[in-house]
């Protein structure tokens, strides 16, 4: 976070405030201010250096009129983060005609005495004998059981010392307005939730439409072009032939990824580990497209929405799998 800030007294412009403004949305162009063409509300201009223009530097320091925080008898000296914002200059920056900050130069009045403290509210003095009498009377009333309810007066006047005590007869005139606003807020929240769900659904739909899969092979001509098979029926028959073993296949991960022992699952035939990103038909389709069209791995990875490394592992495994399951070694 930037620590640069304006050195003029009672001016709160700083680099942090400017950064927050850049992260807000422009009401005119409907984009963030950092990418908008609207001018910034102010700029933080550095002091002239002692080597290039010492006179102007001393003039700026005198116009700021600050005292040192450590020693009030010394003049304040700016540091590397000390700035003066552009709103204190006539031309919004030091020019030849107006080189010094002269606008809105708040000064710290050190000669004024602090405001006197408000006198405390006087307390009402209560005699100790009165306290004892009141305590004795309250104890007597609590212990007495012969006093009937009818002996109490029918009307008891209560003195309300507070302004916030409202009579029960007074009714809030804004109840209808408040209920309308609550209903509007509830309706807007429901609309916001519905729009968020629509956005998620559209993102998933767009992602599914942009990715290539076996569902797009609706015509036999497409099946022949991408896979080399005659029609969709031949593709489904080939998949049904290799599906039982294809679901439990282990992808190649190099010599270091070879399992030391084979784990056998007697209860569940499903593959151990996380779910795959590609289904069995997509695995077969990717392999046939590699054989038919000779596409590069990066192209196939972009088509099916996976990484290039995943595509390479899939092809290395499925090509060997198809060669052992589909093609007969005796006929080769």
UniProtKB/TrEMBL annotation:
The keyword Metal-binding applies. This is Uncharacterized protein LOC109462593. Residues 1-104 form the THAP-type domain. Keywords: DNA-binding, Metal-binding, Zinc, Zinc-finger. It holds the Pfam family THAP. GO terms for molecular function: DNA binding; zinc ion binding. The keyword Transcription regulation does not apply. The gene is LOC109462593. Residues 98-123 are annotated as: Disordered. It comes from Branchiostoma belcheri. InterPro entries: THAP_Znf, Transposase_HTH_dom.
């Amino acid at each position: 976070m930037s620590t640069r800030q304006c050195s003029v007294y009672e001016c709160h412009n700083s680099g942090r405030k400017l950064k927050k403004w850049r992260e807000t949305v422009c009401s005119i162009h409907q984009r963030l201010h950092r990418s908008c063409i609207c001018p910034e509300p102010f700029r933080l201009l550095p002091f002239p250096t002692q080597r290039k223009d010492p006179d102007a530097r001393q003039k700026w320091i005198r116009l700021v009129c600050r005292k040192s925080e450590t020693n009030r008898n010394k003049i304040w000296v700016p540091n590397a983060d000390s700035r003066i914002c552009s709103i204190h200059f006539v031309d919004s920056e030091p020019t030849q005609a107006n080189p010094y900050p002269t606008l809105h130069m708040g000064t710290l009045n050190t000669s004024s005495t602090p405001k006197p403290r408000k006198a405390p509210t006087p307390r009402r003095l209560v005699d100790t004998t009165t306290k004892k009498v009141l305590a004795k009377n309250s104890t007597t009333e609590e212990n007495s059981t012969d006093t009937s309810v009818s002996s109490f007066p029918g009307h008891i006047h209560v003195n309300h010392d507070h302004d916030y005590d409202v009579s029960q007869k007074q009714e809030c005139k804004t109840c209808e307005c408040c209920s309308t606003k609550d209903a509007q807020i509830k309706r807007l929240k429901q609309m916001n939730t519905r729009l968020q769900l629509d956005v998620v659904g559209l993102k998933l739909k767009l992602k599914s439409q942009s990715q290539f899969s076996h569902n797009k092979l609706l015509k036999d001509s497409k099946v022949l072009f991408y896979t080399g098979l005659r029609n969709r029926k031949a593709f489904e028959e080939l998949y049904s032939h290799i599906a039982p073993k294809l679901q439990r296949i282990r992808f190649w991960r190099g010599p270091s990824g070879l399992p030391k022992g084979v784990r056998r699952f007697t209860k569940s035939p499903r593959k151990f580990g996380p779910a795959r990103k590609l289904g069995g038909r997509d695995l077969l389709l990717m392999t046939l497209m590699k054989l038919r069209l000779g596409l590069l791995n990066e192209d196939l990875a972009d088509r099916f929405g996976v990484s290039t490394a995943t595509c390479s592992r899939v092809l290395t495994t499925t090509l060997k799998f198809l060669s052992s399951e589909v093609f007969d070694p005796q006929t080769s």
